[in-house]
Amino acid sequence: MIFTYDTELTLRAACMLVNSNRGASGGVDGAADTVGDVAGLDAYLAEFGWTGRRDRDAAELADVHRLRERIGRIWAVAEDEERTVGQVNALLSDTKASPWLTRHAEMPEWHLHLASIHDPLAQRMGAEMAMALADLIRGGELRRLKTCAAPDCDAVLFDVSRNRSKIFCDTGNCGNRQHVAAYRARSRDG
């Protein structure tokens, strides 16, 4: 399935947000939080082009962290379509998502905005992430939301490969580590 540019970008942003305090070697407790402070949040927002109101305070950061946990819970139940739909619908409702088409000089293609630029950051992010997840569900592609297959990693991934075969995340070099470990095991046994 080919996703619209804004859907894919938003799903990648959601994935990166969830992974901002996850990854290899210990999971949430052992990973550095890349959006643990306002500067980290600023860098994340710049990478994905988030615009609109910014408070740049502890309350805004805490709201984004709560959103991160909520999106992570959606990824955790992605194998159960009914539960996922329920959580996505709740997020759409809670964020008061109200879609309209727009475009900007920096993004001339038509795309959706789902909240006012004056709404709080986490509300705007949640609405857009919920809508991107809704697009994924409507397209029958929910199985593209995965958790890394490395035994020491709890990062999530959004699989955009043609055959949905990606199993390792990009956060901790997990695929390479697992392939090296398998090679070494074969060498020892052979």
Automatic annotation (TrEMBL):
Residues 144-186 form the Zinc finger CGNR domain. It comes from the Bacteria. It holds the Pfam family ABATE. Gene3D superfamilies: Jann2411-like domain. PANTHER family: BLL6575 PROTEIN (PTHR35525). This is RNA-binding protein. It comes from Mycolicibacterium diernhoferi.
